[in-house]
Structure formats: structure tokens, C-alpha cells
Amino acid sequence: MSRLTKAAFAAAALSGALALTVTAAAAVSSSQSGTQTSVQSYTGESSPWTAQTVGAWGNIPTAVVNVTVPSGTTRFIDARFTAESVCAGDASAWCSVRIVVTNSAGTTTELQPVTSTDYRFDSPGGAEEAHALERFSAPLGPGTYTVRVQALRITGISQFILDDYAFVVGLVEP
Q1: Contacts of 170 (CB under 8 A, 6+ apart)
Q2: DSSP notation for 29-40
Q3: Which residues does UniProt assign to the signal peptide (predicted)?
């Protein structure tokens, strides 16, 4: 290998390493740790549900759980959603889901990591497939909270169906 070729190779390797460093630096990390409490709630549905609205989050009717954080304590939520999914439409579009928590004042917050419409739960192509999502909250003070799963059809999606799904919500002591 000539010196020029070696220099070009080294420059390309350095450029790639810098690109990875910049990408990693732009990532936003979030984490929680704690002890699982005895409070866990489960819900499931074997009948299919179809997202009707394009471009707006819709509540999945039976994927909702109410939890109570005891007085004088804090807890965070660990929530997991699994489903069989069908997403049909333009190849460049996708179907998204998120898990949110609503407090007694009516304020709704997306659980972490917050991705908004960027989380691709499913993409067009293929038959029914199993997919999953797990999210967690920041520490929550005493009170009652509603935890739910929402679905979104991005523009270009003609059909988004969720079937045979399960939703598990646990309270964790920080």
C-alpha cells in the first residue's frame, strides 16, 4: 500500500470515528433504577383495534391502567406494551405508539425515552408481526395516575391495526 493510499485510508477512518462521536454526543440519555413494588397491573385484548385518525394520537381503548402512588412516597412507572401489528401504506411512512401518564390535574406526559412520532412501532410491508415497547416515568409524587397507550398513523399510512395485545404497568420504588 502506498503512503498516499495509507494516508487516505487513515483520513477516512478518522472521519468515520468523528461522525460516530458527533452522533453519540447528540443522543439524549435517560435512566431510572429502583426496586419493583408489589403493585403491578395487567390488561389485554384479543379483539383487533384500528387507528382511525391520521396525524393525531388516539387512545387504545382497553390499554389503560390506573395506579396510585401512596402518600409520603415517590414511585416511577415501568410500562410495557406488546401487540400483533399490521401497518399498511407508503413505504416511507410508519405506524407509531407511545405510552403516556396523566395526573389528576389532567396533565399528560410521554414516558421516557420521549420520542414523539420518531418511534417506529411498525412499518408497511408484510403480514401481522409481534412488536413491543417499554417505557418509564420520572419519579412521581403521591396521587392517582392514568397510564395509557396511544397509537398514531403517520401521513401515508392507510391502515394500522393492533391485535392480541398486552399492557403491563408496574410501580417501582426509587
Answers
A1: 36, 37, 39, 40, 41, 77, 78, 79
A2: ------EEEEEE
A3: 1-26
Place of cell 407511545: 98
Q: What 8-state DSSP symbol labels residue 116?
A: G
CA gap 156, 124 in Å, rounded: 10
Give domain limits for the chain: 48-75+82-133+144-173
Residues sharing a CB contact under 8 Å with residue 119, sequence separation 6 or more, in sequence order: 96, 97, 98, 133
User: What are the residue ranges in the chain where pLDDT is below 50?
Assistant: 1-27
Q: What is the pTM of this model?
A: 0.78
DSSP 21: H
